[in-house]
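Hey, sorry to bother you again with one of my protein questions. A protein chain has come my way and I'm curious about its shape. I'm sending you its amino acid sequence along with the backbone structure tokens. I owe you a coffee for this, so here goes:
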Amino acid sequence: MHSPPESLKTFANRIARAAVSGNAAQVISWLRIAGLLGAPTTDPTNTSRGVSVVDLNEAPASTPPESYGYHVGIWEREVVNGKVSFVRRRETGPEWRFWADVDRIEPKSEKTRVLLIGESVARGFLYDPLFNPAMALQMILESQFGAGKVEVIDLARSNLGFQIREVGINALQMEPDVTVIFAGNNWYITNPLMSEIAEIDEAISKQGIAGAKQVVEAQIARHARHIVSDLSAAYESKGIPLIWIIPEFNLRDWRDPITNAPYLVNGLNKEWLDLMEEAQSALRDHEVQRARLLAEKMIEIDQGVCVAGFYILAECSRRANDLEGEWKYLTLARDATSWNVSRPIVPRAYSAMQEAVRDQTSRYKNQVVDLPVLFREHLNGAIPDRRLFLDYCHLTTLGIQLSMRAAASCVLRALKGIDIPWHALGGEHVAPTPKIEAEASLLAAILNAHCAQPYDVVHYRCVRALHHSRHIAQLMLNYMDLQTRISVPRRMSEAEQEIWKIGSPLMLGLLDWNRKRLDSSLLNAMIDALKEVGIEARERVEQLCREEHSIASAETNLLDYYYCSAVDQSQSLMWLNYSADKRFWPDAKYYRAYLPESRFIFVGEASCGVHLCLTCRLPKSAAREMSIGIMLNGKLQGEIVAGSEWGTWEVNFPDAVVQEGLNEIVLCWPRPEFESAQALEKARLNLVESKFPDFYPIFGEIHSFTASDERQVSTTSASQVESPLTEVA
């Protein structure tokens, strides 16, 4: 008789304690979650990765099935006169946009049939449907097989996760001669199984968040091994060659948001924050060795579950011309937050996934295109960057060319027995038109800006877009108008109509997923790029910004997504960014500060003072009232004294301290005692109950925050008030 895993014993103990306490509702809830009262309840509307009614994290079976479903993705098997074709199912209409725009896949012919299965990277995100990897592979293979002698069937789907196993196995019905699988970026744990939650819960109870990271990485590797094993076995049983492409990440240019450390044991969060601030200050002062020592101490404390320390060490290595060191720390930064199942994380190729795929494919002797190795070879040892990536993982034209040339080399080896190195295969001509290249670069600029990436990355994409096609200039002007103007409903906007007229289907897609926000960094990058080609836009945009957003015209809700998203505070924005998955819904529907400083912007006029109205409180762990500093445009203007109960303060700043255009307000929170043990216990309970598990300390909470024209409000002037300011409610 086998003993149950230790993690399940811990979960059983939880249920037992709840039963003894008489909490029947909780006992029933946990038994249902565990599947002991029937299958766990699921939300059929859950589309956290863009797929309806499918559990994307369903554990792969250990052996391939003996029979296959009638569907391959959105296509349904159809047999006419003994010939098998696949027709797009009408009921899957909402999913069509995630797949190739192909209504019918014809029966197998004499052409060599190559299947390409994968996720959004294989889909060619930001280029698709006008250019994508399947098109590139088709053109490269035709140069070797001959025109009309080969066909690449595009089965890539954006947001494809663990269900790639089902797609890959069912695709055997299409009678491929060879199949290429390009996936792995979505093989992370965002919707754990109950057994996996029990493992994470147990790890946190014993080792804190560092233990959870080890467990989650083992789960990622386990899923990857199952997927590779099952697909490899299925294809091996049919004698069909299988080629794997291991994805890579934009290590050099992509930056995950800097956060505080999650709750640390022994109350070490304060020390960690002090170290981070000292290390960042040391870097600014060019004290590289001191910054390195401080960052190493940070990582010793957080045990590698935060990006901040690794980014500091990577920068130290860069300044010391230590390429291997920089590569190492950027890789560790990419993997640092693998444990965080409390929030959506941009797709990426974790080391655990990459190593598992390498190990498992070698067991089945599959051919492998290892993009980390390939890209390093092409870049002569340099770290992968914006030359190969549009954002975090989606490829540029060059990245697509390299990966498909390497895939074509494997196809030729598998089917013709000839060994042509990837670099000997033509592919430079395999590219989109300059107009499409320009629009993809513009979309990449927008995406990077909306993910709070550095200005130089956003500006680089804007410059490249204009370099490829000057029609981008008008698109930029229209986009800036569209984002800045809020007085006109979107579908009635002249700017949007112009984008429809000028842009290709790529820009039309932008209008579907773009969300209006005060894009200060992006607007500046576009304005600067336009100036480099002789187009002045700053005065026009700034005037429009004043007309639409000045506090002289109307009160500004600083917590509105439009304004709140203009600064890099993505963690505090989660309450405004509800995903379809309710596990990512914070339990508070108001702003929470996860860093010692909270930043907000408003549009002011030099002749107009500002009136602020702030309702906030300190976290419950605050044992006493403490001061919150208020800064305006980099200078401390006053303080308020707050406690753990809600309070409202009103304060005026005179026109002498208000700038024309954008102004920045910073709330400087005190550092309360962080009750890590209690907070982690609550997060664990929420995780078990499929609720939002908040693993990070909170510095303060804001219920409302507005800025308006000081001349229209009569209250005490902030310049005449010393701390504390007057509390009015």
The CA atoms of residues 127 and 436 lie 7 Å apart. The chain has five domains: 1-41, 109-251+344-432, 265-335, 434-549, 556-720.
